[in-house]
Amino acid sequence: MKIRLAVPVEAEECWNIRNQAIRYGCKSSYDDAVIAAWTPEKMPESYRNAIVVNPFFVVAAPDGSLLATGYLDLSTGSIEAVFTLPQYTGKGLGSQIIEAIKSEARGRGFEQLTLSSTPNAQTFYEKHGFKLMQESMYPSALAQAELRCMEMSINLLG
């Protein structure tokens, strides 16, 4: 397994990982209709743009196929789109992504990172040093619903 930066041509494959991860991992947090609306097959072009303008990491298998994703949003200092294919969940790929993002952020002078976690992923982020700031409702245009989220942060200096 190799961690590296994604390239724009991989956007659809990254979107597919996102959708599979949400459909599998978020079943206990959101109802089926919300998940279906939140994971359309057609990728918004803004997703490709995220790969272009941010350090967007992927874990690639030896055959080159992508298994996990995640990126540092440079404009907000937040971690976004940390997703792993369901069959690779629990194998440390998401952890590799988080550590790569934290390292990238430190190298760019960020002192703190934030993220909005789905309820089912909160403990994963806590294991990586993130602290819960507050619970919130995120108005998702894609899901056409307000999504329950855990607002979290980590101090990179300590």
Could you give the order of the helices and strands? EHHHEEEHEHEE
Biggest sheet statistics: 4 strands, antiparallel
CATH topology (level 3) name: Aminopeptidase
Beta-strand content bin = 25-35%
- The chain-level structural class is alpha+beta
The CATH top-level class label: Alpha Beta
Strand order of the largest sheet: 1-2-3-4
How many strand segments?
Answer: 7
CATH superfamily membership: Gcn5-related N-acetyltransferase (GNAT)
Instruction: Count up the helices.
Output: 5
Principal-axis shape equals globular
Mean pLDDT: 93
Could you list the spans in which at least 5 consecutive residues all have pLDDT below 50? none
Summary, kept brief:
By secondary structure, this protein is an alpha+beta fold.
What would your notes on this structure say?
This protein has 158 residues and is an alpha+beta fold. The chain has one domain: 3-Layer(aba) Sandwich (Aminopeptidase). Helices cover 33% and strands 32% of the residues. It has helices spanning 11-25, 32-38, 45-53, 93-107, 122-127, and strands at residues 2-5, 56-60, 66-73, 78-84, 112-117, 131-140, 145-155.
